[in-house]
Amino acid sequence: MSDIHVLSPEVVDQIAAGEVVERPAHLVKELVENSIDAKATRVHVEFFDGGRIVKVIDNGKGMSPEDLPKSLERFATSKISKTDDLWKLKTFGFRGEALASIASVSKITLTSRREGDEQAHQLVSEYGKKSEIDKVGGSQGTTILMENLFENTPARLKFLKSDAAENTAIKTTLKAMALSHFDVEFRIQENGKLVNFWPACKSRKDRVEQILEIKPMYEGEAVRENVKAYAVFADPHNVAKTARNIWMFAQNRWIQDRSLQAAVNEAYRSLLMHGEYPIAAVWVEVDPDCVDVNIHPTKSQVKFQNPSLAFRAVAGALRSTLEQAPWIPKTAGAAANSGVNSHLSAEFQANDFNSNFKSTEGLPNFAKQMPAMPKENLSFEDASLSVTQFQKKDFSFPTTVNQPKIDYQTLAQAAESRQDFAGPQTSNSSEVPEARGYWSSLEVLGQANLTYIVTQNREKIVFVDQHAAHERVAFERLMSAWKGGKIDIQDFLFPLAIDMSPEKVEAILTLSKEIERLGVFIEALGPGTVGVKSAPLFIKDTILGNVLDRMAGEVVEQGGSYSLERAVGDICATMACHSVVRAGQALSVDQMKNLLREMDQFPLSSFCPHGRPVSVEYPFYKLEKDFGRIV
């Protein structure tokens, strides 16, 4: 007697249900995707008891009476007909398994009506057993009522989480579906109570602001060969404690992708503190034949033909806008100077940090007293060594500067001048006023606790952390010098050999051109060895080997890497932190004004290189409210 036998259709369907419908949230996703594929512009979802009862109503094109029973058969679909169709999909569903799988583990009532039909038709299926089709009343579209989920499979029922947890997963799924379809109205009811209503919007940005309830959000896009990324995201002041508010979409499908999530985090490098995560929604579009959407039972993952392009496109889409710091109010002067710094990601200013301070002739007092970089070449054993070397060079402001004293009359005059912060008016009307950015347009009132520069404008008082502000200025100049090729490069007499796996060697060589732009030149010395021919002088050999190995690993695992830039950024941040003005040092009014002018040269001056905010604002209306002037 043969030990091999063919499984019954019921068992096959339940096996498929275990893959496609792991939990009620996956079921809801499949049903809503069917509604979207049916060209619905309104989707109404109700769910009860942690998703064991779900009802989805749409106004799509509906189904004919003949198609109702077919829709519950396995591998029955209207969306593809041959293998090639898998590589040019324009729909979200395509396998023909979802409804059949759901029907095998629940009771389904399927009601549908097409445009032009006199009435709707209804089909009831109990755990795969279909009833006769009835004529019923109903509007155009399809209504699916799913009840008693997993009632016939008690073992699977035990694996469901609490009702609250399952309800949360369903709402998260519906939020993602609404984000990806801004032109569709969504109405969500939980246990009979309306919890969300999202009318159709005109754009993705409007939808993101509507659902995530953050305004304003910012946009950015980038193209890397055949990969296009579009992002809507919050500024670095609006952050989350987890990565759950990073929403990723590929071909407008909601997906989970660690590599693309890492690309979003990379874009916010030096703008967030440890434990902070961005809030963003990102869409990646690529030619249909360059992405495989059929690699996961729940279609929650995709595979790109070239993951590195997707990584770089996502990082570029966010970074291109972030580096313009659109959250900083634009003044007339800032608009005039915007062409200089608005595209730092593409062309960095080649201002050598050393040369800026070699000569102080004609510079303001503040610049004259800023620290100069040492002339000798530095070799860093580690970050602490570089700090020690910089501290020995006495990179501090003179401690003999008298603390500015502000008397009552000075404060009174400052209060009277709140209506005009453009500076003293000139008698010659033909002179063009000096262009001023946001920071330099602030009126300096003084220094608080020898640490914070106290400024104001018409609407608020702004406290500026002098150490964090100066640290960002120094950091940006160091990074600009490095990216502008102004850092000394050393050629090795013999290539520095770095051993790594053949897979990593192949991965790192694909980035050789990008790495060369950063001053590191590599070549293959063997199947498991990479040779470094030259590198920036201030990067120690041991650091370089670890960085390149980590970079290769990130390329293999995530499809993209900024490890080298990140490592250099960490070194530059340490150098900047220990070579600038510190808290507790007195500054003159001129020095404070000059620091604010320096900040205007770099759009990301609102954050120090470690992600700490540079300024804190207190609106005057809050002061007036605290003093009882307004209620």
From TrEMBL:
Residues 444-587 form the MutL C-terminal dimerisation domain. It comes from the Bacteria. The keyword Cytoplasm does not apply. Keywords: DNA damage, DNA repair, Endonuclease, Hydrolase, Nuclease. Gene3D superfamilies: 3.30.230.10, Histidine kinase-like ATPase, C-terminal domain, MutL, C-terminal domain, dimerisation subdomain, MutL, C-terminal domain, regulatory subdomain. One of its GO terms (molecular function) is endonuclease activity. Residues 208-323 form the DNA mismatch repair protein S5 domain. PANTHER family: DNA MISMATCH REPAIR PROTEIN MLH, PMS, MUTL, DNA MISMATCH REPAIR PROTEIN MLH1. This protein is involved in the repair of mismatches in DNA. It is required for dam-dependent methyl-directed DNA mismatch repair. May act as a 'molecular matchmaker', a protein that promotes the formation of a stable complex between two or more DNA-binding proteins in an ATP-dependent manner without itself being part of a final effector complex. Belongs to the DNA mismatch repair MutL/HexB family. NCBIfam families: mutl (TIGR00585). This is DNA mismatch repair protein MutL. It comes from Bdellovibrio svalbardensis.
